[in-house]
Amino acid sequence: MDWHDWLLFLHVGSVFVFGMALVAFWGAVIAGLRPAGGDPEALALTIARPANVLVAVGSIGSLAFGVWLAIDLDEYHPWDGWIVASLVLWAVAVGVGGLAARAFQSALGREAAEASVLRQRGTLFQTASTLAYVAILVLMIFKPGA
Amino acid sequence: MGALLVAATVLVAAWRRSDAREVTALTRFGLLTLLVGVLPAYVLMRVGAEWIASKEGFGDNDPDWIGVGYTTADLGAILILVSLVLGGIGLRQLRRGARERLVIGRIVGAITLILLAGYAVAVWAMSATPGG
Prior knowledge:
The complex is a heterodimer. Chain A has helices at 3-33, 40-72, 81-107, 112-142. By secondary structure, chain A is mainly alpha-helical. Chain A has one domain. Chain B contains four helices and no strands. In chain B, helix 1 packs antiparallel against helix 4 and helix 2 (20-56) packs antiparallel against helix 3.
């Protein structure tokens, strides 16, 4: 294994971690909606706690190692269309994901009606973040224009 | 892996709680996640992997990293099957009103952690392609 193989592993590994965190956040959303007998908010927070760490590691790692790879490999450049589009989508996924987290956190301890509106908003942001992530995967796999 | 992470998180969290109601809720959610999250995701992964492997046309000369993928996937299938059977028994116990710390939840929690470690190795093999 050479240096590029390790760089690719760190990039793909980070993308996996990012994806795992997104799925875990959906688990937290579902846990918060469907009480399984206990306190749904406590259950959602239990799931979200490791996901918060993983989303930070995965998102920063995928960006840093991805850009590093694009600079390091002769066949790709950071200014290639599909890479620029991926960078924009990465910013959308992270930014909107942050808004989702803020909406869900604001819902904690609020009255039912108010909390419901905030959770709906959070779910909408979470959906947008997930779609942006999936779009990045499509770009990374098919590399249009490369 | 995301669904596994959810299952592992709540099952491990259940070990550390003392409130019976909380332990029951966490264990139930973890076991249900295995059924509705981990199993469909595994099937999707396995079908997709076979599809791309046949499309790439490696035939009988699979590179080492594909061998690592098959090994972790097949061992993972056995562990997921064991977890699902144990999970089914655990859910039945919970429905019957078992409120004590469920040993089955702990066993399944440990299996999910082993699966996560195994799939981390698979991700390494698929991305770094050693011997490829």
